[in-house]
Design goal:
The protein is 47% helix and 0% strand. With 60 residues, the protein is an all-alpha fold. It has one domain. It is globular. The mean pLDDT is 80. Keywords: Cytoplasm, Glycolysis. GO terms for molecular function: diphosphate-fructose-6-phosphate 1-phosphotransferase activity.
């Protein structure tokens, strides 16, 4: 899921309508949707200088 999110965030715009979710696998979408909303928001909002998701800084 993280690799897929990295690729989308690097190349796509994450829209409020969730169209970007159609570009990840069904399994990754299920995992993402099971996460608390706050974690979901952090995953798509916290990128490092290389435009990768920063897992280590997520609030848990």
């Amino acid at each position: 899921m993280i690799a897929e999110l990295n690729e989308i965030l690097e190349n796509e715009v994450v829209d409020e309508n969730g169209l970007w979710k159609k570009k990840i696998t069904e399994q990754s979408l299920k995992v993402f949707d099971r996460l608390p909303e706050a974690i979901q928001e952090q995953l798509i909002a916290t990128l490092d200088q290389n435009r990768n998701v920063q897992i280590r800084i997520l609030n848990s």
